[in-house]
Amino acid sequence: MIAWRLTVSDQNNEHWLSPTGRLVFILALLLSVFQLWQPIVGFFPPGAVPFEAVFGLLPATYFRPVHLCWILMIGFLIYPLSKQAHHRGWRTLDMLAIAGLMWASYRVVQFDYQGLNHLLYGLSWPDYIAGLLLLGTTLEMARRAVGAVMMVVGLTFILYAAFGNYLPDVLATRGFTFERIVRFQVFTGAGLFGAPLGIAAGAVFSFVLFGAFLQVTGAGQFLINLSFAAAGRYRGGPAKASVIASAAMGSISGSAIANTVTTGSLTIPMMKQLGYKSEEAAGIEAAASTGGQIMPPIMGAGAFVMAEFTKTPYGDIVWMSLLPALLYFTSVLLYVHIMAAKGGFTGMKNPAGAWRVLRDGLHFLLPLALITVLLLNNYSPVLVGVSGCAAVVLASLLRRHTRVGLAEIADALHNGARMAVPISVACAVAGIVVGTIGQTGIGLQFTESVVGMSNGQLWLALILVALAALVLGMGLPATAAYIVLAVMTAPALQELGLALITAHMIIFWLSQTSNVTPPIALAAFAGAGIAGAAPTRAAVEAFKLASGLFVIPLMMAFSPLLLTPERDWLDVLPAAGLTLSMVLGIAMAVEGYLFVQLRWYLVVLSALSVVLMLWPSMVSRSVGVALCLSVVAANYLSSRKAAVQ
């Protein structure tokens, strides 16, 4: 019998080794229960819930501050200022920060938003100090949980709002007093507690919990085992299984880096044992894990933000993303196959049979099917995530070898809340950035700058956006980078002729590229750590394998690749075929190999075919596709001749 459920008893015991560990466990457990209760209580009519003022459905004005306060309290406990236990002075500062945070959050919840005094005379001193405390603790937690760059970005935008009047004309804006900045950022719904935090506290949190339940029940391990059973016996099997498993697990983990570490700890050693170089194994895992963030039905957190920004039903975004995501993973699999063919690698010996794996874990497909159907029918993502959590637990009870008890459920609730800390904090800081852009009006100036620098050329504007995505992504999580880029650059792309959803989809894809693009490619670096490879070499391999992250958004802009309401499959499939031909041409030009080694002139013709397919002309693209297929045919014939000889 396959052991589906990971052993969590040792991990659970760690929660109770110290008072801080016990406090974190209890706070995280209660936060997850609170988050699950909020969408459930919305079904009850007013007055049906006892003590409704406390246990009823909270409006966003109260729910978001409560969520952030809870998240920050847990954050200060699990990300201490000093990791050395004997530094009691630092721990005291953390506890004082928590006390100040609770007081400040209470002031925000009790604030009279309907009154006029704060508009006429400004904030009272207690409210002003409370606002400063919330901004400061959020930025500090961003430094600890996400990285110093995240904190610097948020602080830079706050300082820009205060001192923008001292900058040159192209960047200048009206300078605001710190009181007005705090009032706008904390005591309105447009800054710290704006849409990014609302999405993180709602849909994203529920799906992070869903991922935690998949892990403790063994459903996540089932998906990995099924991938190995399906692809393990073929040439380069572990690498191909890694790609498939990452497609299934990537969006569940919510992070390309977390996915690389989770699945890579299993797949990278197997790839190295098969014959892949260390940097190749790390690059394959990083490229595949990054693609998990764009794979429906549960895409990364940025997809929920996109649905809110564009007012597009999430189910529609899932349909639009399906074909491009399949193209991306096809491109990664193509590179993996070529690398295996060049190296003469074989498949796994005696992999587990697909039927055996499926037989023992078939019931875990039920919750995945449920959330897919609900999302495609445009049910609320928050309710879908909550339904998924319940469905996974119920599905685990159907078979004796996967049944979970209260200990595993509590562990999932605890792990989900802990995983949500960096996501919610990053979205809160992104809200500060969005609020500053709205308060200062810099977004309009940036749009004009992008349009001016591109000279009205869409392709040049896309290059500028891609460069901005790389720079931002070196220090920001993909979701935060998407939020900033969407607010700053989406209007420029729209002005150059792209539809709203197309512009956002392109930005969303480009926001993922920093995970695999040198010089700082965090997912590739994580894979390199597991593989024992040089980080830079691993990043180069990941960049090559993930070239679809650049090609596919380009084709979104210059071909009907997205299945929007205005397009049907007859429009989209030819564009998909063209994109696949481009990916094939690039792979042959880069690797110099397909069935056998390509002659030098075929490599040149492959590169030429890609250039022809890039040009937005029917004749040029037709010639490019024909040229690419001719190279494939010539190489296939060469392989047949070599086999005969």
Distance between the termini: 47 Å
In N-to-C order, the SSE pattern is HHHHHHHHHHHHHHHHHHHHHHHHHHHHHH
How many E strands?
A: 0
Estimated radius of gyration: 25 Å
Number of helices: 30
Instruction: Tell me the domain tally.
Output: 3
Q: Into which percentage range does the β-strand content fall?
A: under 5%
Low-confidence segments, ≥5 residues, pLDDT <50?
A: 1-13
What is the molecular shape? globular
Helical content band: over 70%
Q: Which whole number gives the mean pLDDT?
A: 85
- Major sheet, described briefly? none
Which descriptors would you attach to this protein?
single chain, 645 residues, mainly alpha, 3 domains, 30 helices
Give a description of the structure.
It is a single chain. With 645 residues, the chain is mostly helical. The chain folds into 3 domains: 134 residues, no CATH class; 217 residues, no CATH class; 162 residues, no CATH class. Helices cover 74% and strands 0% of the residues. It contains 30 helices and no strands. Helix 2 runs antiparallel to helix 4 and helix 4 crosses helix 20. It is globular.
Summarize it.
The protein has 645 residues and is mainly α. The chain has 30 helices and no strands.
Would you spell out the secondary-structure blueprint of this structure?
Layout: H1 9-15, H2 19-41, H3 52-55, H4 60-78, H5 88-109, H6 117-121, H7 125-145, H8 148-163, H9 178-186, H10 195-217, H11 219-231, H12 237-253, H13 256-274, H14 278-291, H15 301-310, H16 314-343, H17 354-361, H18 365-376, H19 381-396, H20 406-440, H21 442-453, H22 458-473, H23 478-495, H24 500-510, H25 522-531, H26 535-545, H27 548-558, H28 569-591, H29 600-614, H30 618-644
Helix pairs in contact: 2-4, 2-20, 4-5, 4-20, 5-7, 7-8, 7-9, 7-20, 8-20, 10-15, 10-19, 10-20, 11-12, 11-17, 12-13, 12-14, 12-16, 13-14, 13-25, 14-16, 14-25, 14-26, 15-23, 15-24, 16-28, 18-19, 20-23, 21-23, 22-23, 23-24, 24-27, 25-26, 27-28, 28-29, 28-30, 29-30
